[in-house]
Amino acid sequence: xxxxxxxxxxxxxxxxxxxxxxxxxxxxxxxxxxxxxxxxxxxxxxxxxxxxxxxxxxxxxxxxxxxxxxxxxxxxxxxxxxxxxxxxxxxxxxxxxxxxxxxxxxxxxxxxxxxxxxxxxxxxxxxxxxxxxxxxxxxxxxxxxxxxxxxxxxxxxxxxxxxxxxxxxxxxxxxxxxxxxxxxxxxxxxxxxxxxxxxxxxxxxxxxxxxxxxxxxxxxxxxxxxxxxxxxxxxxxxxxxxxxxxxxx
Length: 249
Hints:
With 249 residues, the protein is mainly alpha-helical. It folds into 2 domains: 18-188, no CATH class; 192-248, no CATH class. Helices cover 50% and strands 5% of the residues. The protein has a two-stranded antiparallel sheet. A hairpin with a 2-residue loop joins β1 (235-240) and β2.
């Protein structure tokens, strides 16, 4: 019997530098930079008059980062976002370990939704232009932002305006879903989502194994193996003097 080194996925105390958890090139890094340096948040700051009296408030920049990062990962209830802020190292890092409660998050989204939506749209437009929004990001209850296809990153003024409107509508819908979740008092079924993803992976793995077992290798005229496609077994990548194209054997 082989012997392997042990692995443990349970809780562990680790020295963590929070600033190093926001990786350059990621959506979280772009979000953090845009909120801190590029967005005009003076309208949010103006709502707080506690410089002399009153309790300190959560920085709206921190709250905006938390909420938009949560949306990018499919979290749209205040309770699930609050839980992420206390357990998920990326949320802890981007919030500076401030850990706002679900009540504070819900209040922020409800009371400042009119100010949040245009800021949200600005972040989406910038991140999309940088190729940071893919097919799965922000896929929340049918809200799928358009993938970052090159044909959608350029075009006429009318085409670009139309793209901006699509992103703006997606931002509106996500915020509305968040507020609806909070009103219903719903806790997102994270375990159910996780289990659904596991089942999808199992099905895909089973389909791949069945394909390999049932389909022999396909060779070209030179005896080299052709790449197969599980969805379309007859298709293959064929090399030409102009590169590689999708063809049919």
